[in-house]
Amino acid sequence: MSKHGRILVAMSGGVDSSVAALMLNEQGYEVIGVTMKTWDYAQGGTAKRITGCCDLDSINDARNMAVSRGFHHMIIDIREEFGEAIIGNFTREYMAGRTPNPCVLCNTFIKWEALLKRADMMDCELIATGHYARSRQDKDGRWVISKGLDPGKDQSYVLWGLEQANMARTRFPIGGYHKSDIRKMALDSGFPELASKSESYEICFIPDNDYRGFLKRSEPEATERLAHGTLVSTGGEVLGEHDGYPFFTIGQRKGLGIATGEPLYVTEIQPDTNTVVLGRKEDLDKVTMWVRGVNFQKIDALDGEAEAIVKIRYKDKGTPASLRMDGDRLKVEFHAPVAGIAPGQSAVFYDGEDVIGGGFIDRDDPNGP
User: Would residue 216 count as lying in a domain?
Assistant: First the structure.
């Protein structure tokens, strides 16, 4: 009988999730490792060597580590759920002129559901992951997610979608450590190959990082139909043609297909007319943002106005802002101009180190596509 009971640990084959499993095993939990197969790389349409988190080599690495330490490991196939919810959403969002963040959706809406379902089947009360984040239960009984101790690796941004019931059953063993500590733990535990393993930052189903090529393969008729769209200035002057608005994102400067005497940036995408608007860097600045699909974590609901630090992308340092609900959307008023607000990306609200909640950045026009 284990000291703390059974815990299901998501193991990608990387150093972070592997060390998380090792730590829990040493703490006296009966660890059951699980690796999720999300994507069939043989159908990925790329000749590049796969280095993602869910490829065959990573699956084998996770299994071998578990076997070497004597705890169970299994592989679960979630390609069907992943394909519709993540890949389907990815293509739909780009075709709607937005910039999706599939990792947020996958983490909070696919992997957690899959993990908890298997945890119930395996009689595991808790699950754990290798995210650099921390969680605690406050005096009112609410679970709160906080930033990981390592500011360079903090992953609290991608966890805003977790609901209270899921947070209560989730542990983040490595959240209180720096990446260098985790690599040293792997080395000291006898896994030098894990300690030196490189990280992958590509989207798992686009291992060559060519999302344009992926969209062309996924939506050949639509992307071909959208060729010869119009590039215009913020003043309406026609600047040239493009191959389709889904191939652009707000803030983009390179790959615009035209030569000008000054740097230009994508400031707006208009799907209904297949138009991409280009402007100067200062044209990217905004002080108002709308957010849809909001999930609150630290609070039950937003009553009136609140102050927060708001991040509009993963590596964003955050900007002070005022928050207020307006119908089913959240209105964010930044205290200083923010550049490159991209509809479809996640906005996450912080109270110090704690995640208040988050949602998806919406268009200014609620009736837009």
Answer: no
Q: Which of 251, 279, 307 is the last residue of a domain?
A: 279
Residues 97 and 186 in one domain: yes
Q: CA nearest 334: which of 353, 316, 354?
A: 316
Main-chain phi, psi angles of 198, to 5 degrees: -75, 160
pLDDT at residue 49, rounded to an integer: 43
pLDDT at residue 84, rounded to an integer: 78
Eight-state DSSP code of residue 49: P
- How many structural domains does the chain have? 3
Contact between 362 and 312 (Cβ < 8 Å): no
What count of Cα atoms within 13 Å lies in the side-chain half-sphere of residue 197?
Answer: 26
pTM: 0.91
Burial letters for 47-82: b for 16+ Cβ neighbours within 10 Å, e otherwise?
eeebebbbbeebbebbbebbeebebebeeeebeebb
pLDDT < 70 stretches in the chain? 1-2, 40-55, 200-202, 365-369
Mind listing the pLDDT tens digit for each residue in 57-79? 778 888 888 999 999 999 988 88
Please give the positions annotated as active site.
106, 204
Sign of CA dihedral 74, 185, 27, 127: negative
The token pair that represents 24 in the structure block = 């829990």
Please state, as a whole number, how many other Cβ atoms lie within 10 Å of the Cβ of residue 248: 25
